[in-house]
Structures are given as C-alpha cells and as structure tokens.
TrEMBL record:
SUPFAM superfamilies: P-loop containing nucleoside triphosphate hydrolases. Residues 4-234 form the ABC transporter domain. The keyword ATP-binding applies. InterPro entries: AAA+_ATPase, ABC_transporter-like_ATP-bd, BCAA_Transport_ATP-bd_LivF, P-loop_NTPase. Keywords: Amino-acid transport, ATP-binding, Nucleotide-binding, Transport. GO terms for molecular function: ATP binding; ATP hydrolysis activity; branched-chain amino acid transmembrane transporter activity. The keyword Repeat does not apply. GO terms for biological process: L-amino acid transport. This is ATP-binding cassette domain-containing protein. It comes from the Bacteria. It holds the Pfam family ABC_tran. It comes from Sulfitobacter sediminilitoris.
Length: 234
C-alpha cells in the first residue's frame, strides 16, 4: 500500500490555478522529491497535503481519504511539516520553538526532545539561544526538529536548502537520509536545487506551472536531455 496517494489535485488562489491535476504516490519509508522553479506550486502542494489550502481531487493517507481534513488532524495522523523559511518565533529560544511543535504531541515530550537533540547535537548545545541570532542552517535544524516533536511517520519538507551554503546543504541531506534509514520515515521534500534532491530522493517529480511534467528515478529523468539541461545541470 502507498503511504500517500494523491489523485488529480487542483488548487486555486482566487481565480488563479496553482495546481492542475497533480497525481503522485509515495511508498512507506521512501524519500521523494518535488523539483520545480519559483512559483511552480511546490509549497502549495505541501500546503494541500497538510490541509492548509483547499483542494479538489483526493489525498489518501495509508489508504484513508483525508482530503479536506484540518492541519491539526493531519498532525494527529502522523504528518510533520517543516515549511519554507522556517516560520520560527524569532524571540523565543531554540527549546521553546521546539516545544511549540510538541503542542499536540501524544507521547513523551522530553523523549522526543532528546531524540531531536541526538539528531542535531548543535540544538542541544544552543538550547537557550534565541532563534533570531542563529545561522540559517541552525534555524533549518530547529524547523526540522520542531516538525519531529510529534514523532511523525511522514515528513513534509519545503525547500530546506534555500539560502544555505553547500556544506550546510550536505548536513541537511545527511539528516534527512538518517530519518529515512534509521527511523523509517517517509519523506516528501520540495527543491529548486535538483542536485540536492538527487542526492537523497529515490524518485522525483518535476512540477512546472502547477503540472507534473515528468516523474521517475534519477536515472530515468537523466535520459531526457531537455530535462537534464533544465534541472540537473547536464
Ligand atoms: P517558490 O519556490 O518561489 O516558493 P513554489 O513552487 O513553492 O515557489 P508556490 O508558492 O506554491 O510555488 O506558488 C504557486 C503559485 O501560486 C504562484 O503563482 C504563487 O504566486 C501563487 N500563490 C501562492 N500562494 C498564494 C497566495 N496565498 N495567494 C495568491 N497566490 C498565491
């Protein structure tokens, strides 16, 4: 069975259509990437899955139709979301920002905090630092950590490398790989940085103007010259 199965998803902002008949599937423990340029609809797609944007079409989670459910219901069903540009509370500490993520947590909050600290030792060292004074990479770690505070089974990550140095991107890629390999998490990551996406996703979907225009493994997509040129620097 698929963990996530999306059929014919459409989304509108007023009269402007942001997503047109998007369909995709994600298997348990798989990491998939949604690759696309600015405005392609990547954030909208994750917002739709999370119940933040209204849609037509169907979203299934472990076989159950969850279309139209509210974000809090999606969190209860095991979805974690690390949005683009973090949305942290800048004048709160790292610890308090992580605790915000645990607001609806059912299990032991300190245990989850310890698990986040194991993944990101730097957040343990900087527990009492205000996030406004952190580097971009550290803030991305807080954002991912906050999403993990409810111990989700599916993690949605929106453009985790935006504005980050290559070395920090590599660190983030390592953490996302560990989440899948060690904790069995299913991950959907959106990216403009196709090489980052290739480094961790088993399959990729290319989103252009709200349409899925290609999908497949990295090897399959690399066969398409035009695509390889546009997205993978070939
Ligand atoms: P980026 O990489 O720049 O974040 P994206 O691929 O995530 O882009 P979206 O943010 O999903 O793309 O935007 C898709 C389209 O929907 C764009 O044309 C955008 O202007 C529009 N859009 C997004 N959010 C809203 C909103 N709240 N109101 C109106 N239009 C919106």
């Amino acid at each position: 069975m698929h963990v996530i199965e999306i059929d014919n998803l459409c989304a509108f902002y007023g009269k402007a259509q942001a997503l047109s008949n998007v369909s995709l599937t994600v298997k348990p423990g798989e990491t998939i990437a949604i690759v696309g340029a600015n405005g392609a609809g990547k954030s909208t797609l994750l917002d739709c899955i999370m119940g933040l944007v209204k849609t037509t079409g169907t979203i299934r989670l472990n076989g159950e139709d969850v279309t139209g459910l509210k974000p809090a219901d999606m969190v209860k069903r095991g979805i974690g979301y690390a949005p683009e540009r973090f949305n942290l509370f800048p004048h709160m500490t790292v610890r308090d920002n992580l605790l915000v993520g645990a607001y609806t947590a059912r299990d032991d909050i300190e245990e989850n905090m310890a698990a986040v600290h194991r993944l990101f030792p730097r957040l343990a060292e900087r527990e009492w630092q205000e996030t406004s004074t952190q580097s971009g990479g550290e803030r991305q770690m807080v954002s991912l950590g906050r999403a993990l505070m409810t111990s989700p089974s599916v993690l949605l990550v929106d453009e985790p490398t935006i504005g980050l140095a290559p070395k920090v991107c590599a660190e983030i890629a390592e953490v996302l790989k560990r989440l899948s390999a060690e904790l069995g998490l299913t991950v959907i990551v959106t990216e403009q940085n196709a090489n980052f996406a290739l480094s961790l996703a088993s399959r990729l979907y290319v989103l252009e103007g709200g349409h899925v225009t290609a999908e497949g493994t990295a090897e399959e997509l690399a066969q398409d010259d035009q695509l390889a040129k546009s997205y993978f620097g070939a």
